[in-house]
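Sat 14:20. Reprocessing the chain from the morning session after the first attempt stalled halfway. Input below, unchanged.
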Amino acid sequence: MHSYGVWPSGAWPLGWKGRSAVVSDDGKLGGSGLAAPPAPGPSRQIVVPPAPRAPLRAAVARAMVRRARRRLPFDVAVTASGGGAVSGPGQPVLRLLRPESFYRRLGARGLIGFGEAFQAGDWDTDDLSGLLTVLVAGVDVIVPRGLQGIRGHGAAPRRPRAEEQTINGAQRNARHHYALPDGLFRAFLDETMCYSSAIFPTGEDGRVLAEDTVLAEDTVLAEAQRRKIDRLLDLAGVGSGTRVLEIGAGWGELAVRAARRGAHVRTVTNMAEHAGFTRDRAAQAGVTGQVRVDLLDYRELTADDGRYDAIVSVEMVEAVGRRYWPDYFRTLDRVLAPGGRIGLQAMTMRHDRMLRTSTTFTWIDKYIFPGGLIPSIQAIEENLASHTGLRVLDRYTFGEHYRATLGLWRARFNRNWPMVAGLGFDEAFRRTWDFYLASSEAGFAAGYLDVHQFLIGR
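Finished this time. Tokens:
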């Protein structure tokens, strides 16, 4: 999952530098030009910078909050104890525990400061996803459109060059998130370890049926993840004897599921941990002979290695970076066999928002996923038209399913927090990831983000 751009905000605030590499069967690190990941750093704490001294900007922030409060369905309460504020029917409350720090952060650092104020405990709420949904839906009210395109100042800084998604940069950026211990991800993912939107059953009224009881949710979520995978494999025409390329292995569920159909699967990843996990999973499933796992960047794929009847990629394009979208889609075109099909699952945002976000250093960049960008449908179609012989043949949209997926992940994360804390993570980390999951859920609930399965071909 890559929810870039929901909350605009480099450094490596987690202090986590990665773990040991998994060596492939031929004794090489995936046979690619990727560098071996560095040794792990000792710290798993997040350091939130102190509130800056910015009285004028704090005054502007107060005015913006008053404007938002007048126009949007939420309330603001100042309370030293964190209690005593009760929201109206369906109306969440933003509780300011340290209002001066909150306004200084918000005024000086914009939406990065808003997120950091939550991380630091300057504000809280009884309904985090609900409050953030109101704010995301009302972003044009909070920040006038004429000001949204202004970048390069403290409240909307530009992306640092250090996040450039070169081959080594992409590996470094991926490690910032995915080199965290598997135990963290196990705390909120289901048994499939799928970290992307599931597809749930729907009622006759179209409502997503995502059970949220403790006893049922793991089974429901795992079934929904497999439903998502099966739909994508069907879309790409994967069956017995199909030559399949997967770009972005994750924890291996898709590769194993395709192999069980009788397909011959090659899956590539720039994460050594994922490569090792996927090999182990294939061995446990008895499909080792049908699954080849390479530690490889997608740009290192060549037609000399063979062409594929089907290419599948789940929420990988969001990590590519706008500058490298042409390379990504040219790679798909280069290695797709004549008559082949591509199943691409991707999040999207509105094109004008994508253009603004593409140059902005966001809270998500700083604390969760460095260097990526959620594309727009228009950007995908334009890149295909300009750089390949491919085109979108079909599209299935299921944003409400991502909202439900994220809601289950967040509930599981908070319920299993003692397990995560036992790995050495602190309260600031808990608040950071709670904010990340809630703001991502809000992005889909407000319609700011969407997710699709694209069928792409010639």
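The two ends are 28 Å apart (CA to CA).
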